Amino acid sequence: MNYTYISTSLTDTDRLAQELASVLVPGSLIALEGELAAGKTAFSQAFARAIGVTETVNSPTFTIIKEYEGTHCPFYHMDVYRITLAEAAELGLEDYYYGSGITLVEWASRIGELLPLDRLDIDIRHVNVETREFHVQPHGLVYEEVCRQLAERGVWA
Fold it and tell me: Phi and psi for 97 in degrees, rounded to 5?
């Protein structure tokens, strides 16, 4: 099952990040997609704040991976836009995926075959200047349960 969340402001995006942060646990992986300027980094920043990261979070486009300490758990923020699948395979990403933090991968489809089968896919679509649609697809029982819990809270459209 797929879910949709409509955001008409950064406050709405923050709400989705907070809701997800309240149900995801260490070892969770968010595979984030969206065209340029869709709001991937804004969502990543909101999610980091929601798990207690106090540092400034920016897109790790050139560093590929940034690690942050949150109050709930570490946050591993990846941007794989500028690397090839072969380069990604050499980075040992699975150490992050199955580590003690929550991993968020921007441009995740570029390394799709290296991602765990169980994950939460989020595709952000730019509707207009203010509005974004977050299309969420859970993969695996844990993520299906996460989405079911959020549906019970009325998060999804």
Answer: -55, -40
111 burial type by CB count under 10 A (0-12 exposed, 13-18 middle, 19+ buried): buried
> What are the distances in angstroms from CA 110 to CA 26, 57, 80, 132?
23, 22, 7, 22
Whether the per-residue pLDDT at 148 is higher than 90: the answer is: yes
Q: Hey, what are 150's tokens?
A: 């959020």
pTM over 0.85: yes
- DSSP character for 112? G
Is residue 25 a contact partner of residue 151, using CB atoms and an 8 Å limit? no
Contacts of 145 by beta carbon, 8 Å cutoff, 6+ apart: none
Contact (Cβ atoms closer than 8 angstroms) between residue 90 and residue 117: no
pLDDT tier, 59 (very low <50, low <70, confident <90, very high otherwise): confident
Residue 39 Rama label (left phi>0; alpha psi -120 to 50; beta): left
Can you say whether residue 104 is alpha, beta or left, with left for phi > 0 and alpha for psi between -120 and 50 degrees?
beta
Sign of CA dihedral 27, 28, 33, 36: negative
